[in-house]
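Human: I'm a chemist; would you kindly supply sequence and C-alpha cells for a protein?

Assistant:
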Amino acid sequence: MKQPADPRVSRALDLSQELLSAAEKGEMQRVVDLDAERGRMLREFLKDSRRIGAADRALLDDIQRLNDLGLSRIEKRRRETCEEFAQLGRGRRAVDAYAHTQGSGK
C-alpha cells in the first residue's frame, strides 16, 4: 500500500509556493522568514525519517524545483536593483554636472 506524504513535507511544499510568490513580489524579508520555517519543517522531517517514501520524494522534488525557481527570481530582482542603483548614480552625476556648468556661468 502506498504511504501518504508526511504532513511536514506537504507543509514545506506550501511554504515553498508562498516563498516563490514572495520572491516574485520582491518581499525579501518574507522570503527569509518562509525559508527559515520551511528549513525547520524539513530538518524535523529528515531527523525523524528512516526512509523517504515515494510520496515524500515526489514532494521533495517539487520543493527543489520551486526552490530553484525562487532563487532565479531573487537573482533577477538583485540584478534589477543593481541596475536601478546604477541609473540613479548616472542621473545624479548628470545633475551634478549640469549644476556645475550652470553655477560657473557657462
